[in-house]
Amino acid sequence: MIGVLTALDSPIVLAPMAGGPTTPELVAAVSGAGGFGFVAGGYLDAHGLGAAVAAVRERTARPFGVNLFLPGERCDAGVERYRARLVAAGFDPGEPVWDDDAYPDKLALLLADPVPVVSFTFGCPDPDAVARLHAVGSEVLTTVTNPDEARQAAEAGVDGLVVQGFEAGGHRGVFDNDPADPAGGPQYGLLALLRLVAAAVDLPLVAAGGIVDGAGVAAVLAAGAVAAQLGTAFLACPEAGTKPAHRAALAASDGAPTAMTRAFTGRPARAIRNTFLDVHTAAAPAAYPQVHHTTRPIRAHGDPATTNLWAGQAYPLARPLPAAELVATLLAEAREAASRAAAGVAR
Hints:
Elements: H1 3-6, E1 12-14, H2 24-32, E2 36-40, H3 46-59, E3 64-69, H4 79-88, H5 103-112, E4 117-121, H6 127-135, E5 139-144, H7 147-156, E6 160-164, E7 170-171, H8 190-200, E8 205-208, H9 214-222, E9 227-230, H10 232-235, H11 244-251, E10 258-261, E11 269-272, H12 275-280, H13 290-299, H14 323-346
């Protein structure tokens, strides 16, 4: 199936970045430029998601998709201790509540008002949900981080996979948030993972993780992907809802390294290192979304030392271009890189 993503004018997919960076203007600009934008459904209720979908439709007639977070098993271990740690550090944290991110209501919305593609993160949609989305004409993707997850998703009947390497900024899309593993499971670099997943399942693959320029796009297409999904590259665009502290960190000349952490949400995610990440990562429990709700008031202040500066490993290559111009630039760079590679092979 997956006809939408294989028929793009430009094989550039805007990653869904929940929490503010993904705006209707950004989604519409990427889709309007021949790429494919995803509305970030995470953290929204059904009403908010419906409003975001409507806002994108007002701005473009081009196809776009919606991403949903799948609720996982509840784990409360270590949450109260972590909250007490933050209080002792002088913070005023929120309450560590658990919720399902309004997933049933948002799925019902997308069944009643379909979009061309629905993607899932943090797990594998059940076969019934996949079948129901197919019945209303939506193609289905899910994010995988290892070959075993890819096989499970294929068995559920999805149309394609977003293959996420450990280089990716923001949350890892791991199915199981293993509390015994700080990274949430085995870590694969994107190119290796693409080849391993391609050998494990016969599905179209969208590559994600550390892709910020056209040479990266060309590399993953050469490795078997049908498209490249970029998030960090679009954070600097004027259409993005990226907060000022986050923009400043992305543009900083010192290029601070990134690291994997559960300190902000309870799920492993890659961010630019700051004081909060360095001090609290080792103590953070694998309790999502309780940790997310606990640290939300802390992050809301926008202090660069205490907010989540999500970014992929190659973030210093990001450019503050308008989204449509960035899509065109990425495509031109990818073509140039592919030509160089072809010339090299022909020698």
